[in-house]
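Run folding on both entries below.
>entry_1
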Amino acid sequence: MLIRLLRLLVVLALVAAFAAYVWPTRFRYDHISVEGDFCPVRIDRFNGDADMLVPDEGWVPVEGRADDTGAPTAAGAAW
């Protein structure tokens, strides 16, 4: 009886760990239009940082543009 309970607890712990750390992956993937070309973009679900995949450079941070008030806007409004 005790062994069955321990097995159940281990299975539940593994399912909970999978649900917390693997299933909702860290990055959400999208794309951005740059000069008519589409580039993959990954967005970190934990802190909201975005990186763009650039050939020969790899993943580079996407920098936002500032509007007239100086507040940053989303880089690449064509998402």
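>entry_2
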Amino acid sequence: MSNLEERRRQPLGRIVLWFFVIGTGIAGLGFGYKLHEFFWALQRQEGFEFAGIHLITYGLVAAGFLALLAHCFLGGHFSDIEAPKHDLLEREMRHDHAEFD
């Protein structure tokens, strides 16, 4: 049995898990409501003049991060997430041996 399964079976772990699930759901609903209000206000001409450039900037930045994530996912960078850690530790050990030997 894994550590995660043991935690899920504990009553306190379940309470904490449900607390975070419900909290995340409420926060998501609040964020969705604020987006709805924002886009409703943006339909008027004054709203777009006020926040249009900011929305375009944030959208381009978010699209760039999404493209980078897709590139990494399709390139197989997430297939073995432990490998970079081991490579770094091995390089550090070789560097230390070269420096102190």
